Give the backbone structure.
Amino acid sequence: MSRRAKPLLQDDQVAKSQPRRRRDPAQPNLPFDPMPDRVEPCLALLKTTAPAGPDWVYEVKWDGYRLAIHIEPKEVRIITRGGHDWTHRFPAIAAAAKNLSVATAILDGEAVVLDEHGRSDFGALQQSLGGRGGKRTSTESILYAFDLLYFDGHDLTGTELSVRRHLLEDLLDGADGAIQLSEEVSDDGAKLLENACALGLEGIVAKHRDSTYRSGRTGDWLKIKCVQSESFMVVGYEQSASARGGVGSLLLAGRNGDDWVYVGSVGTGFNMKDAEYLRKTLDKLKTTQPVVPLKGKNLVFAQPTLIAEIDFRGWTHDGSLRHASYKGLREVQDNAAVFDMSERPAS
């Protein structure tokens, strides 16, 4: 790969964390565990400040598609966060997985496309896949692996993160192709976040080094962002005769249990081509029964189907997004969770 990711810190600023224990040489003699068809991913809980103390380690917050790479003796499967098989969409990652010196493994990581500055670019990743509903395969993407859930016939989800990382680092030692190790560092979280923001990264992820791998948002992993980015449901649009593609802004909603909560609109970040596609698609989803209590002569309401990734700078007191910008649509198969309003930080 010609491009490399922006490091969280330069090599001369801080040493990478070291595993606390050595691999047990008797491990290969342990009974084999059945390889799971799928492991529900551990998800990071949104926080506004980074945790401090020696129990926490930190990584770059990647901006791409969360994937699990299942390596089996006769095949490799690439599974999305929602459980869909996308092996055919990421051939370079699949080929790299086949070349790893392991018979069975499950890698947890994020598929990204890097920009010229070594930062993950969600829009470029979407473009490499042909956009929402596209049929292209992404040859430009690479996987940054940050966890190892199954290895050589053994289920690792019940072991500490420090042990899993040690084994992952051994497995990916020297890897510089379509699968690479996500850098992990031990240092002051606030300092790392400041550095990440200065480098133009999305933020950092903090992980408790002694935590086992638990599915869902347990608080073992935390995400702290420079510019917030979340998934929201598009519930309609505002028509405009002067705006590109006739779309003045998109109407957005977050989830509150089984209900939808209006979080404001976004009118920047999409070009003419995006706007024409959005209007055509939303017109097909048109409904006279909006899922949010809005009224307006120029508002067109749609069934809650399209999920958009939105950058924003925070929340207003009345629960709307501040300085929102459209990044792209999430694939249905990606099953990106629409933002849960219970996770919104207090004003």
Remarks:
- The CA atoms of residues 187 and 254 lie 34 Å apart.
